[in-house]
Amino acid sequence: MNLGRTIYNALFRRTSTFVVTIVVGGFIFERVFDEGMDNVWENMNRGKLWNHIKHRYAEDADEADE
């Protein structure tokens, strides 16, 4: 109960701190979710994305120039 009261008094008692808490929480959630979904996408498409296969084509382009 004491932890709940401390959190309430620190973050939710005043409207201004409540709004700041919500905005900061939303920003942190967005960053964590975005990074997590990028990692899921990279793992599901491993070997199909440009940053995974560009070494194959970059060497071919260098040899074609010579």
From TrEMBL:
Subunit-structure text: Component of the ubiquinol-cytochrome c oxidoreductase (cytochrome b-c1 complex, complex III, CIII), a multisubunit enzyme composed of 3 respiratory subunits cytochrome b, cytochrome c1 and Rieske protein, 2 core protein subunits, and additional low-molecular weight protein subunits.
Transmembrane segments: 12-29
Sorted UniProt keywords: Electron transport, Membrane, Mitochondrion, Mitochondrion inner membrane, Respiratory chain, Transmembrane, Transmembrane helix, Transport
Name used for this protein in its record: Complex III subunit 9
Cellular location(s): Mitochondrion inner membrane
Gene Ontology CC terms, in alphabetical order: mitochondrial inner membrane; respiratory chain complex III
GO terms for biological process, alphabetical: mitochondrial electron transport, ubiquinol to cytochrome c
Function of the protein: Component of the ubiquinol-cytochrome c oxidoreductase, a multisubunit transmembrane complex that is part of the mitochondrial electron transport chain which drives oxidative phosphorylation. The complex plays an important role in the uptake of multiple carbon sources present in different host niches.
Pfam families: UCR_UQCRX_QCR9
Native organism: Acropora cervicornis (Staghorn coral)
Domain of life: Eukaryota
Major place of residence: mitochondrion
Family: Belongs to the UQCR10/QCR9 family.
Gene3D superfamilies assigned: Cytochrome b-c1 complex subunit 9
Protein's membrane topology: Single-pass membrane protein
